[in-house]
Write a structure and sequence with these properties.
The complex is a heterodimer of chains A (455) and B (112). By secondary structure, chain A is an all-alpha fold. Chain A is 76% helix and 0% strand. Chain A folds into three domains: 3-76; 92-283, no CATH class; 290-451, no CATH class. Chain B has one domain (5-108): Arc Repressor Mutant, subunit A. In chain B, 58% of the residues lie in helices and 14% in strands. Chain B has helices at 5-21, 27-37, 49-58, 82-108; strands at 25-26, 62-68, 74-80. Chain B is globular and about 55 Å long. The chains are: A mainly alpha (455), B alpha+beta (112). The interface between A and B is medium-sized, with 23 and 21 residues.
Chain lengths: 455, 112
């Protein structure tokens, strides 16, 4: 490249970095610069002299960017536009192909939900409850499409693709092989745990076979958090759409409740997962991650609530009233705290020194541990009275798994705050621990039903 | 001559519209035309023209289209729209009022 071209390329690079100036503007400005330089060269200036004069006349990049920002203030808000803009972009055909793949997969997921009806299996059984077939296979309508999407996008090897398919096949066998009676609680457990186990197959596809690396897993954690947030937002929009649809058709005397219940909502819910994943993929470098922001907002609040709860319990002497569902609610509390820790870790610069927020996280972990230990003690005292039902064993197992995670996280946080250990130790612990969740979920699906005789 | 920021900004719209009224053009040619017409007295910082053009485009006074330059590079050409023509007429009236008023005062006080 001649030196002048290099200089132009560098100048173009400076402009590109300004958010207020987009690709088309840079092209327009560069055209201007080149016209100016051609004129100056004709007047007898050397190439680099012409460049310097032309750049000077153009104005400084800072003031240019300021003027563009005044005219295009919308560009200062990071926009997520998945379609290509007017500038001829090299990635445009790729983007179009991805759009086509995603839309096809979303439609496929929506159809997959209705496909069993072709074979006489209806979404709702005679008592207007979710049919047992749908309960057990809920994960299989969407997740294979998601896996196909990521396998396609990451270009996984044939061997990886085959092992993903085999894992799904095994899961499908275990979901359908057991003779569950109606309203069996082990079947409920299967339908709750199978999606968790399957989610890790999605993770393997998401990381493109790099599931064993810590940063691959951490990226999947980030993806999962953002997907959840996007899905909730889409679901809210879908709710509004559904409400309007019902209302408008109701106004002309047509009842469409059954269409909404058996077509619009289930198909929409399935397709939306694919669309939301695609949005997360598209926006990951464009928009701030939301999950860590929510973590920052809610960590102090939950810490205050937990500490107040402990203080109140100590002050009033009220013990935890052990009812049937109490174990589940403390499980959920731990899930929440683990989530807060995980997403705080996911967004933290590992080399930064411990700050106030890290101490707050430590306090959160310790107060959650204290609350959970008190709850566990109360439950243990009466476990014989309750007996070991599958639900209770599953809930207890989950509680212990989360408790172990939090105990060690608390220890690592403490070491980190006292600058005895690097932050990466905590990050490693969280990513290394992820397979434990899937292993437990798989265990519940595979072992629990025969163990408890399908009750 | 330094016209000052405000005057440059105020005169930019009528100048650009008036030049485009003579025929479609592009950024560099517009700047060159301004310099020529003012005898070199009116010097814009070149880059500042583009936000002005984009604003006029957004307001619907000019329309832009990508074309080709003589050397084959992509170049954005601007064209005056019907609204732009109307706006130019209005601007012309306004500047005439300013010009006449100043003229009247200066003729009375100190003939330049």
């Amino acid at each position: 490249m001649p030196p002048v071209e290099e200089q132009i390329a560098q100048w173009r690079g400076y402009l590109r970095r300004r958010r207020a100036i987009n690709g088309a503007d840079v092209e327009e400005l560069e055209g201007h610069l080149r016209d100016q330089m051609a004129m100056l060269t004709m007047a007898g200036l050397a190439g680099d002299e012409a460049f310097l004069v032309a750049v000077k006349r153009m104005g400084s990049v800072d003031s240019l960017s300021r003027e563009f920002a005044r005219e295009h203030s919308e560009r200062l808000w990071k926009q997520l536009v998945v379609t290509q803009n007017e500038s001829a972009d090299a990635t445009a055909p790729l983007l179009r192909r991805e759009t086509a793949v995603v839309l096809t997969l979303a439609v496929a997921a929506a159809f997959a939900v209705k496909a069993p009806e072709l074979f006489g299996v209806h979404l709702l059984d005679g008592n207007a409850k979710l049919a047992s077939f749908y309960q057990r296979n809920a994960g299989f309508f969407v997740m294979p499409m998601l896996v196909i999407y990521f396998a396609w996008k990451r270009g996984v090897t044939a061997a990886t693709a085959a092992s993903l398919a085999i894992l799904f096949a095994i899961a499908a066998v275990f979901a359908n092989i057991y003779p569950f009676p109606a309203r069996s609680s082990t079947q409920n457990l299967t339908s709750l745990h199978l999606p968790i186990a399957l989610w890790f197959i999605v993770g393997a596809a998401y990381t493109g076979g790099r599931w064993l690396t810590g940063d691959g897993r951490m990226n999947f954690v980030r993806f999962s958090g953002e997907l959840f947030i996007y899905y909730v937002l889409i679901a809210l929009g879908g709710g509004v759409l559904t409400g309007f649809t019902v209302m408008m058709f109701d106004a002309i005397g047509i009842k469409i409740d059954s269409f909404v219940g058996t077509w619009l909502v289930p198909c929409g819910a399935a397709g939306a997962v694919i669309i939301a994943s695609w949005l997360v993929e598209a926006k990951q470098s464009v928009i701030e991650n939301m999950a860590p922001v929510l973590t920052r907002v809610f960590t102090p609040m939950f810490t205050v609530i937990l500490l107040t709860f402990l203080a109140t319990m100590a002050w009033t002497g009220h013990a935890i009233d052990v009812k049937r569902e109490v174990l589940i609610s403390f499980d959920l509390l731990l899930v929440l705290v683990v989530g807060l820790v995980l997403y705080a870790v996911s967004a933290r610069e590992p080399l930064a020194r411990p700050d106030l927020f890290d101490r707050l996280q430590l306090l959160l972990v310790m107060s959650a541990l204290a609350v959970d230990v008190i709850a566990l003690a109360a439950i243990a005292a009466r476990i014989n009275e309750f007996g070991f039902t599958p639900n209770r064993v599953a809930a207890l197992g989950e509680n212990i798994i989360l408790l172990v995670n939090l105990m060690w996280s608390g220890w690592l946080y403490l070491q980190f705050v006292r600058t005895r250990a690097p932050f990466t130790a905590l990050e490693r612990w969280q990513t290394d621990y992820l397979p434990v969740y899937s292993a437990w979920a798989a265990l519940v699906v595979i072992v629990f039903p025969p163990l408890f005789r399908f009750i | 001559m330094d016209l000052g920021k405000d005057l440059v900004a105020a005169s930019a719209t009528p100048l650009v519209l008036a030049i485009l009224a003579d025929g479609d053009s592009y950024g560099y040619a517009i700047i060159k035309r301004v310099t020529e017409l003012s005898g070199g007295h009116l010097q814009w910082t070149d880059g500042m023209l583009y936000p002005v053009l984009h604003r006029l485009e957004r307001q619907g006074l000019v329309a832009a289209k990508w074309g080709k330059s003589e050397t084959g590079r992509r170049r954005k050409y601007y064209r005056l729209t019907r609204e732009g023509r109307a706006q130019l007429a209005a601007e012309r009236q306004r500047w005439k009022v300013v010009d006449q008023t100043l003229h009247a005062i200066w003729m009375k006080t100190s003939p330049a």
